[in-house]
Amino acid sequence: MSSASSNPSRSPTILVVGASRGLGLAIASEFLKRDWNVIGTVRSGRTGLNDLAAAHPGRVEIETLDINEPDEVAGLRQRLSGRRLDILFVNAGTTTREEHVLIGQVSTEEFVRVMTTNALSPMRVVEALQDLVPGDGLIGVMSSGQGSIANNEKGMREVYRGSKAALNMFMRSFAARQADTERAMVLMAPGWVRTDLGGAQAPFSVEESIPALVEVLLSKLGTPGLEYLDRFGKTVPW
User: Fold this and answer.
1) Chain segment 98-109, per-residue pLDDT in tens
2) Is the separation of the CB atoms in 15 and 39 below 8 Å?
C-alpha cells in the first residue's frame, strides 16, 4: 500500500529505497529542502518518514517494501508504472550481527543474509525500476568505502566489506550493459556516520554528512556513466 499526495507538483522526484531512518531518511529530508518530491520505502509500521510526510503535505509518498522479497519489488514496480523517477537511490542495507566475525567463522545463514541484503537485493531493485529513470536521470546505490578492495589494508568487518565489494562489481556489470545510455550512475561511499548501522563511535553526524552527499548526487546528473564517489565527490579506488 502507498500513502500518496493528491496533487503532486511538477518538481523532480527521487525514490529513496530504505528511507525509514538514518541516512535514507536524512537524504529524503534534504531533497525536500531542495524542492524535490520524495517517494520513500519502509519495511513496515510508522517511521520517521511518516513524520516527514506530515511536515510536507503533498510532497512525500510512502511505499512498503522489503527488498529481500522479489514479489514486493515486482509489486512496487507495478504500482509505479508510468511514473518518472529523476533519481532512483537504493539506500537499504545491513551488517553482520557480530560486526567483526571473520569470514571463516561466519555462519552460512548469516553470510547469505548480508550478501542478499547488501548486494543481490539492491540490484534486483535497480533492474526492476531502471526503465522509470529517464536518460537525464540518475541511478544511485549506497555502497561504502569498505567496499574498496584497493583500500582494504586492515581487514575486519570482512563479510560487510565483501558484500559491498560485490555490490560494486554488480553495478559495474550493470553499467557495462548500459554503455550506450546517457544516464548517470553512482556508487556512494558516505563515510563512517553515526546511525544505527554506523554506531555511536562514528566520527561524523548525519547533519554533517548528508547535505554534501546530496550535493554530489545532484552534481552528477547529466554526467553519463558509473562513478564510485565519496560524499565530497572524490573518486574511491575500486
Assistant:
1) 878 899 999 999
2) yes
